[in-house]
Structures are given as C-alpha cells and as structure tokens.
Amino acid sequence: MPFDAPVSPPADVPPLHGEPLPLEFVNTVFPVRGALRDGLRTPEHLVWWLRSCRGRLATPLSDSALDEVDNADAQCFVMLRDAGRRLVDALVHQRDPDPWDVAQVNRVAGIGRSWPLLRWDTGGRPVALEVSTAPPVVAAQAEIAHALIDLLAGRSGTEPRRCPAPGCVFFFDHARSRREWCSAGCGNRARAARHYARHHHSA
Q1: Closest by alpha carbon to 104, among 142, 137, 66?
Q2: E-state strands within the chain
Q3: For 159-186, how does the pLDDT look when each residue is reduced to its tens digit (9 = 90+)?
Q4: Among the four residues 44, 47, 99, 198, which has the most C-beta atoms within 10 Å?
Q5: What's the pTM value of the predicted model, to 2 decimals?
Q6: Hey, how many other C-beta atoms are within 10 angstroms of the C-beta on 60?
Q7: 129 φ, ψ to 5°?
Q8: Cα dist. 171→1, 18, 38, 74 in Å?
Q9: Distance, CA of 126 to CA of 111 (rounded, Å)
Q10: Looking at the DSSP assignment, which residues form a beta bridge with residue 18?
Q11: Residue 3: enclosing H or E segment and its boundaries?
Q12: What angle do CA 25, 28, 34 make, to 5 degrees?
C-alpha cells in the first residue's frame, strides 16, 4: 500500500493525491477555506506525512525513528519543501529559479552517504533497502531531495503542472492520464468558473 496513515491524524493535514513523491511533498502547502495551511508545520504533522508516505520511500522509517522527530526536523523539511515548491513553479513557468533554492536542494541531497542493502522478505522475495550514514528521518529528507532533482532534471518521466482551478495551489503529474487538473473536484470548479465567466460577460 502506498499510504500508511495513523488512525488519528492531527488537525488540517494535507490531502494525499497519489502524485509522484516529490509533488506529494511540495503539495503539503494546501488551501483550507480560502487560507493556505502548512502541512508540515509541527513535528506531529511531519510524522503523519512521513508515516503516510513511508511505503513509497526506499529509506526504512520505523515507528521508533518517527517518535524522535522534533521541531528542528520539521523546520528542515519545511525549508526543503519551500525551496522545492519554488523550483517546481519555476520549471512549470519556464523562468530562472532563485540560486538559493537550487543550493538548498543540493545541500540536502548531499546529506549522508547512502547505498542499497539486499534483504529477503518473509515471502522469500529479495528486496533492496536504502541505508545511509545519516539518521533515518534525515536520510528520508535526502531521498526526497534526490527525487526532486530527478523530477526537475526530467529524469523521472513526470510532467509537473500547476492546477489551473480557482484557488488551487497543487501541482500534479500531467503525464498521468493527461489530466488538466489535480482532481475531479478542481476540474468541476474550473468548468463552473468558465461557465460563470462566459454568462456573466455576455449579460
């Protein structure tokens, strides 16, 4: 399963759309009743997101490792998320990014040394786990930075787009089903807005 969410999440957690991991990560800024919320704003929110997405990470994240997440970890993930969000936006709009954002992603990507570790699971199937010299949560942050680099450099097969629906701030993978919006709900809102604009303009 791609998601492993806890039974009782904290208030106002970001929706999970099943986008490629780096887009799911930058989409942790989300609107609630017209106001933007930060889905990584506390250690509890970061733990919820990491636990929800850990099945999509090569870095093993145990419950004990997640229990040690603190405010400094949340702030580091927010800094990476904000830089990644601005870089994806620069890519989508074909403009030069802020060099600081590029440096931030590169800095996090270089944290710790990682290598694959071969294991046999209980079903007798060989699996490769990613291990690192960094603590698990820090290694997961570096893995997300690697995924951001692959996406931005065009090595992941993802075609990021910004959802054009009114009030939406999400990015989505246009390569998946050639969608024009991040969700069916946003598609309905965009069509309703166009319909209103046509009729209001002609009135």
Answers
A1: 142
A2: 29-32, 35-38, 114-120, 126-132, 160-162, 171-173
A3: 999 998 888 999 999 998 778 888 888 8
A4: 47
A5: 0.87
A6: 16
A7: -105, 145
A8: 22, 12, 15, 22
A9: 27
A10: none
A11: none
A12: 150
Residues near 137 by beta carbon (within 8 Å), at least 6 away in sequence: 50, 61, 65, 66, 68, 69, 73
Q: Which two tokens stand for residue 51?
A: 């636990």
pLDDT grade for 202, boundaries at 50, 70 and 90: low
pLDDT band at 199 (very low <50, low <70, confident <90, very high): low
Q: Which two tokens stand for residue 34?
A: 């017209």
In whole angstroms, how far apart are CA 89 and each of 23, 84, 92, 95? 11, 8, 5, 9
Q: Which amino acid is at 14?
A: P
